[in-house]
Amino acid sequence: MKKVSINLLTNVLLLLVGITLIIFHDVPNFFLWVARVMGALFLLPAVVYLIMVAVRHADTRTSADYMGVLPAVGGLCFGLVMMLKAYKFDDLLQLFMGMLLIVLGLFHVIYLLMSRKNLKIKGWYYLCPVLVILCGVLSLVLPALRQQENMPTVVLITGICLLLFNFTSLQEYLAERRVRRAVTQPVETVPAAQDDTITEVDLTEE
């Protein structure tokens, strides 16, 4: 069974997130729901772990179990705060989205620059990652985009940028595939020139 590429999983996850952001960008208080979902992701594993440790017999508990209690309690408290005080995380989530776009765009730009000779990268390959970086910078520096009434626009732009990230990943994959095919393609052998000289054969009978 083939191992699933981490790069493929990352791209699929970002693609799903981008589509979700585009579909639900105009949902009222979108960031509040995002914060609550993230709070639940912190809360549920912590609760499950604490329950497992609590129901386990004292004789079977190890030092690792007790060491895991502290981060589990921290995750539980943080998850509760995010769910109950989600409005306090609006600005943080927007900052996180802007920083994420900048990091993703820079990742592709650096990769394309390092691979431009081997993969024969064309100039227009840089268009999408540069746009992603630009959108991330604008979402961080423009005060108008941080206002509540413009949040749907920020969410929509972020979703589109994640799709552009996946498009660039597809371009890189196709370029790598072309190079691999060129390397593994068998070299056509040139037929050897036939010798026009006639070899004399001794036909004399014994």
Count of DSSP-assigned helices = 7
Strand-residue fraction? under 5%
Poorly predicted sequence stretches spanning 5 or more consecutive residues: 195-201
What profile does the largest beta sheet have? Answer: none
Run of helices and strands: HHHHHHH
Measured distance between first and last alpha carbons: 68 Å
| Overall residue-averaged pLDDT value | 77
Helix content: 55-70%
What's the number of extended β-strand segments? Answer: 0
Helix-strand makeup class? mainly alpha
Gyration radius, in Å: 29 Å
Overall geometry comes to flat
Descriptive key words:
206 residues; mainly alpha; 7 helices
Write the layout of secondary structure elements.
Elements: H1 6-23, H2 30-55, H3 63-67, H4 69-84, H5 90-115, H6 127-141, H7 151-184
What this model shows, in words?
With 206 residues, the chain is mainly α. It contains seven helices and no strands. It has helices at residues 6-23, 30-55, 63-67, 69-84, 90-115, 127-141, 151-184. Mean pLDDT is 77; it is low at 195-201.
Short précis:
With 206 residues, the protein is an all-alpha fold. The protein has helices at residues 6-23, 30-55, 63-67, 69-84, 90-115, 127-141, 151-184.
